[in-house]
Amino acid sequence: MENHAIIESFSEFKDEKNIDRVTLMAFIEESFRNQLKKKYGTDDNFDVIVNPDKGDLEIWRNRIIVADGEVEDENMEIELKEALKIEPDFEVGEEVSEEVKLIDLGRRFVLAFRQNLVSRIQEHDNGELFKRYKDMEGEIIAGEVHHVRHREIIIYDDEQNELILPKSEMIPEKDFFRKGDTVRSVVSRVDFKGTKPVVILSRTDPRFLEKLFEQEIPEVFDGLIVVKEVVRVPGEKAKVAVESYDDRIDPVGACVGMKGSRIHGIVRELRNENIDVINYTANTQLFIQRALSPAKITNLTINEEDKRVDVFLKPDQVSLAIGRGGHNIRLAGKLTGYEIDVYRDDEEDEDVELTEFGDEIEDWIIDELKAIGCDTAKSVLKLSVEDLVSRTDLEEETIQEVRKVLNQEFED
């Protein structure tokens, strides 16, 4: 078998592995030289000429002519009588080049050459696969379930590359797949297991939700709306902070859509995960208030040094702030970067009816205050002295005295 025929027999690699002809020829030369080194200890005296256009390979061995019987290295030297068979006018000391046929190197050499070539191509494929998916980390990919295992499912992409979706990266108790199902997930990371790249997918990664927004909401895809932060309890609840670069666009409204039409597909993909979309703001106090939605905050105190915030709410809002299983407050903390402590604001429960101060405040004064809707101590204290003077027939001095009495009640 001639060199050309042997090289053509390797064309299956190009077809199966999608390697261009020039690259394949470079691998052939590299693999061939590796085998020459193993057989002769060096390939320095060989010229390997690869012709990608013809798919041909020429091998020439260069040796120095020595006197008959004085050959010390058969690879590097040739006897004069053997050299004269190649060219009748050769002399001792000259260099002779002789073409070598692959078949003359032996069947074992060719088999080893083939194995070396297969390994080099596989190494190339692994490198290409690693680079391709490394560049895709954080991007969504769709694939077909090929095999379901106890701890993971094997997914094939369009080129039949094997991808892994571990059970730990699936939405708990809600993701169930069978062979043949199409699965969307995000490329979480790419590792090496030995020399083989392993592509790990995820459906619980916050980036999956972020990319779903990008796919499903045109304004996000176009960059008019930016997803600033995403936090999730997969399958249960998520909070997404969005910001618009166009004052004419309401980012929350655009993401949710009319009657939730836009976000419905995302919720369905995430197995009915409850998604809160909130307006991002650099105002920390306002951002915390929005993050605790749907609860309405009465007041809050921020400790920047410890990154903690004390939030005060009316009793009926506390459970909304905490959420089922504590998901709402935990996600709000992750979203804002603050440790949030919730307190009941029992201010109204501590209020005192004005009639309770009958011993210290005259009845006609109490009646005057009640006439403007101030029937409790705190309802009076919430109004300024100026407001009370303008809304009642009481003198400023009288009002100051009343406020003093009421304040003492709460100070005590």
TrEMBL record:
Top-level taxon of the source organism: Bacteria
Subcellular location: Cytoplasm
Domain S1 motif: 138-204
Keyword RNA-binding: yes
Protein role: Participates in both transcription termination and antitermination.
Pfam families: KH_NusA_1st (PF13184), KH_NusA_2nd (PF26594), NusA_N (PF08529)
Organism: Phaeocystidibacter marisrubri
Keywords assigned by UniProt, alphabetized: Cytoplasm, RNA-binding, Transcription, Transcription antitermination, Transcription regulation, Transcription termination
Assembly with partners or alone: Monomer. Binds directly to the core enzyme of the DNA-dependent RNA polymerase and to nascent RNA.
Molecular function as annotated in GO: DNA-binding transcription factor activity; RNA binding
Record's protein name: Transcription termination/antitermination protein NusA
SMART domains named among the record's database cross-references: KH
Main location class: cytoplasm
Gene3D superfamilies assigned: 3.30.300.20, Nucleic acid-binding proteins, NusA, N-terminal domain
GO cellular component, one term: cytosol
UniProt GO BP: DNA-templated transcription termination; transcription antitermination
